Amino acid sequence: MRVLALVCAAAALAAVEGKFYEKDSLVENLNPMNFNTHIKKPDSMNHVKIIEFYSNSCATCKSFVKDYNELAKQLKGIVKVAAVDCDAHKKICDDYSVTSHPTLKVIPPGGFGTQDYSGERNTKAVYSWTVKFISHFVEKVTGDSLDGFLNAQAGKYKALLFTDKPKTPLIWKGLSVDLHNKMTLGEVKSSEKGVCSRYKVTKFPTILVVKPGQKKPIKYEDKVAYGELFEFLNRYQETFAMERPQQDEEDALKRPWLSESFPEMHALSAPDVCYGADSVCVITVTKSASDGKPPSDLNNVIMAVKTKYANSGSAKFSFTWIDADKEKGFVDALGVSNPGLVALRTGKRTRFGRSELDNPLSQEAIGNFLDRVIGGDIQYKPLKDGPPALTPPPPP
């Protein structure tokens, strides 16, 4: 009954809220049910938050939507960008002394107090103002401080950004906040010739995962984007936190999917990327592109979805994709077509739920599906014998 009541309440809120920021927007819609969580959630207290308080009847608010959506894209993962519909949630706006629309307020790191914005309503101006409040935990690494940087918490990996830019990139600052107390991020300027030579770095930017006793650093090879970088670094802080540097490096070579932001699910990778009892495994069913990877548009959708649901609170998600042709037996056993979307839960009881939409892999469709998972509105079916078998790997 409680779950049903929450679902009904959420539906009622959605019905009265304006349509300024839809499911495919990176702007988070705030309401009485999630406002305090957004502001005071422990793992977001070091983040800057910016909130737009708007009215549906406000012409300036409507014209600002495009700029605010663009702001959310540019600050994805670095600043929490949110909005409140004051027509639907007047009390929140009254509590924050909102008397005109749109009103923009920044909540600095720590979650206490607000700063009001009074400049022009465009992406560039609001961006320049907002980033001034960003704090970070990036450590400057020089030839003199390198050994101390590596040996602090020696059993854990660190990440080094080698850069020729005069200022610390915002993306590196944001990652240092998200990974604070989990993984230490350092920055090496190109002028530090000794450190660059030690790691044989000649191109900038270069990102390496490093650890004392390591034979060879692990180089990041993907595009420099927040979602991909976070997934890469997060896997090392979670998976390789033991005092076994040589074994860790061997594992990284044998299990490359551990450092992939959107890994393929197959017989070898499934235990690592999907069969974790502490998370809901979200499986996208598709056909691989000519390079053997998932379609690029699907990869972009998943990166956006992962960023939006990284701190969902009540559910932890892992995301993977499966080739509908290679793993036809697995797909057929779950009754899923191509394209398809499945939520798989393992542990004491293995069960799955699937999307019934004809086009389940759009950003909006996946978002709706995950909202249903979080709200307990998914009808799971049991798998008494565990997940269906995957195609055995070829002999070595």
Please give a structural write-up.
With 396 residues, the protein is α/β, with parallel strands linked by helices. Helix content is 33%, strand content 18%. It has helices spanning 2-16, 35-40, 59-74, 90-95, 123-130, 146-151, 170-178, 193-198, 226-239, 245-254, 270-273, 296-308, 328-333, 363-374, and strands at residues 28-30, 48-54, 79-85, 103-107, 115-116, 139-140, 158-163, 184-189, 206-210, 218-219, 280-286, 317-323, 340-345, 351-354, 381-382.
Q: How many β-strand runs? A: 15
**Number of helices, where a helix is a run of at least 4 consecutive DSSP H or I residues:** 14
SSE pattern, N- to C-terminal: HEHEHEHEEHEHEHEHEEHHHEHEHEEHE
Radius of gyration: 23 Å
Helical content band: 25-40%
- N-C termini distance: 53 Å
For the report, how would you describe the main beta sheet? Answer: 5 strands, mixed
Q: How much is the average pLDDT?
A: 86
Low-confidence stretches: 1-17
Q: Roughly what fraction of the amino acids lie in strands?
A: 15-25%
| Shape label | globular
Cross-sheet strand order for the largest sheet: 1-3-2-4-5
Protein structure class: alpha/beta
